[in-house]
Structure formats: C-alpha cells, structure tokens
Amino acid sequence: MKPLVLLDLDGTLMDSAPGISASVAFAYGELGLRVPDAAALRSFVGPPITDSFAAHGVPAERVAEAVRVYRTDFVAGGMWDNRVFEGIPEQLRALRAAGCTLAVATSKPEIFAVPIAEKFGLTDLVDGVFGAPADEQGTKADVIAAALRRLAPAGPVLMVGDRSHDVVGARAHGIDCLGVTWGYAAPGELAAAGAVAVVDQVEDLAARLLAHL
C-alpha cells in the first residue's frame, strides 16, 4: 500500500520560466504579434502551450504556427535554460525514504520532459516521468490518467503542483492536490482551485505531504 505522489515539473520541481518565457517571446516576435508583458509570459509556464497562446492574443488560425516557432527556439536552447529548485532533491529523497512512489506528471510534452528530467538529475529520484503527447492535445487529467494506468497504485495518491490546472486535473480522478507557492500561480489561484493545502517553503514539502497522506 505504498503511497503514490504525482509531481508537476515546471514550477514545482524546476524553475523553467526563463527558457519558456524567452521562447514564447521569440514566437510572438516571429509572428509579428505584440509580446505579452513579463507577468503574462510567466503564466505560460505550466498549462499546455496551445491553450496559453490562444488565451494571450494569438488568433486561432495561427496557434499551430506559434507552437511550431516556439518549439524551434525551445529545442535550440530554451529547454535547457532551467534549474531544479534548491532543496527539491533532498525532499524527494525524504519521500522515497518514507516509502512513497514518486512520478512526474507534467503538461509538458513527454518528448521534452524525459530528457530534461535526465539532464537535471531528477530521473534517478522518481519512478517515472509522464507528460503530454507531442501535439499537446488533452489535459492534465489525461497525463494523470496515464500515470495511474502505468503505476496502478494500491495505496493513497496525492498530486503536488503550482497551478490551478494541477488541482483540477487531480480532482478529475478524485485525487487531492497539495499546492506549492514557489512556482508560477497568481496570488490565491491554488486556494481558489481547491488545493487541499498550500506549502510556501521547499524544505517543508516532504513533511507537509506525509502529514496529509
């Protein structure tokens, strides 16, 4: 009856905003569209990129083009402009030592999430990395569904994430979501979405998570 902890990647385990924001800004410039301000660019981190372009002024008929240009720049370097939040490896080791199964569940396409987790040393700290399909169709709930199918947990399951779509995706499967505030949520976003609790400091993550389980 090992607990399963599903962990968002961007904004929860990793500070990926610099690379993502730069590649998003590049895409707007290449399309000849006004580049969103810094706050709007940060809001791209987490949700599916197709949704974010559509929500920030890219005409529906140009979203696919925006994604293509974004990915070209992202693969060329943006995906590596990234870092693991300080203290996260220690928290993951503590959770594993406590008997938890850990898996990354991210809206980032799996073709990017897997090599990023490998390069930044996360692969050895988790039991699986699950992401969106290459076309980014679907929702966070779909990613969680894939993780649940593969891992078939017999014990309790908890999601950890920094954005409202993490909470909503978990709730679709009857799973609680513990929110973290060192990511990219707007003030009050996690509580409004229904996060079971919110953690403000990385060093408190394992203890708060285990207390909830």
Structure report:
The chain is built from ten helices and eight strands. The protein is globular. The chain is α/β, with parallel strands linked by helices and 213 residues long. It has helices at residues 17-31, 38-42, 49-55, 63-76, 88-97, 110-119, 140-151, 164-171, 189-193, 205-212; strands at 4-7, 14-15, 83-84, 101-109, 129-132, 157-161, 176-180, 197-199. The strands form two sheets. A six-stranded parallel beta sheet has the order 5-4-1-6-7-8, with helices on both faces. The chain has a two-stranded antiparallel ribbon with strand order 2-3. Helix 8 links the parallel strand 6 (157-161) and strand 7 (176-180). Helix 1 (17-31) crosses helix 4 (63-76), helix 3 (49-55) crosses helix 4 (63-76) and helix 7 packs across helix 8 (164-171). 44% of the residues lie in helices and 16% in strands.
Topology:
Layout: E1 4-7, E2 14-15, H1 17-31, H2 38-42, H3 49-55, H4 63-76, E3 83-84, H5 88-97, E4 101-109, H6 110-119, E5 129-132, H7 140-151, E6 157-161, H8 164-171, E7 176-180, H9 189-193, E8 197-199, H10 205-212
Parallel strand pairs: 1-4, 1-6, 4-5, 6-7, 7-8
Antiparallel strand pairs: 2-3
Helix pairs in contact: 1-4, 3-4, 7-8
